[in-house]
Amino acid sequence: xxxxxxxxxxxxxxxIPKKAGGERILGIPTVSDRVAQMVAKIYxxxxxxxxxxxxxxxxxxxxxxxxxxxxxxxxxxxxxxxxEFDIKGLFDNIEHELLMKAVKHHTRNKxxxxxxxxxxxxxxxxxxGTLVERTKGTPQGGVISPVLSxxxxxxxxxxxxxxxxxxxxxxxxxxxGITHCRTEAEAKLLLEVLAARFNECGLELHPExxxxxxxxxxxxxxDYPNISFDFLSYTFRPRxxxxxxxxxxxxxxxGVSNKAGKAMRQKAKKWKMHLRSDKSLEDLSxxxxxxxxxxxxxxxxxxxxxxxxxxxxxxxILVRWAMRKFKKLKGHRRRAEHWLGNVAGRQPQxxxxxxxxxxxxxx
Length: 363
What we know:
This protein is α+β, with helices and mostly antiparallel strands. The protein is built from 12 helices and 11 strands. The chain has a 4-stranded mixed beta sheet with strand order 2-1-4-5, with no helix packed on it. It has a 4-stranded antiparallel beta sheet with strand order 6-7-3-8, with helices on both faces. Strands 9-10-11 form a 3-stranded antiparallel beta sheet. β1 and β2 (23-28) form a beta hairpin.
């Protein structure tokens, strides 16, 4: 690489289904090319990372989706309106000339510039072996692509917002973003100028995933069509809450989205845990607790009760497992629930959702 003689091989394309329907095309580099991209990333990322905006959270060290949800929650309490936007096909439509201009602004290292340009121009290889030349975009699936996409949007959106709309705070996670506004008119104007800005830079707002939302709660009781939105698998909407004095009120809060809950329940169903009667309860815990813990660590941060339906399903699956495992419990659901509830009482550490407080009913 230091000699400049390394040429990246074609990038294999792989289609994966999107949650909302349709397909996403990933560009999968070879193992050796992933190593080469990682070398370039190790050199290049520290040069640009200090310049990135504090409210850019995607693909960054020491930044997370949970931080993005947390800051958005606080701002929804202070601002009545927001513009939710999604960039259509970001990785496929990044203008090479504009991106290289940004890269050259941060480094004069000749081999970094050489290889980034080569990676941008490397052709796609389809399943039949056909090579497709590329004139824009950076492969979604490449090691260095997240840094390059963040750099591109840093100048297209982050710095532009900071310079032109400093009174409208925003939160961006890769190609998904939230911009807060004080009035509906302000949000409509921002949508118009933002669409023009992205078009100017070769990008397009997704028409179905971009909308203006009213943050309705007990203090904001206006009647508007959009009073909820999804961001990072959380749904923000009016929810019943309780203050420190025990009084109930309606607040605008995030909770696990219906799509995310459905995806978790479908995954748990595919485990076929209830059919594993050859396994002990401890075996099931070792097999599935890491995934369950991951769900709770992410979706249990805000409005925990929204996650309860999914966790209760896990208990129902375990009850079915107990009914198949033990002859004395076969055909006796209430008896199996009672048995499992007693186990959860004695060993709450066995499953993460039991420690979370969602235990089987013991009677």
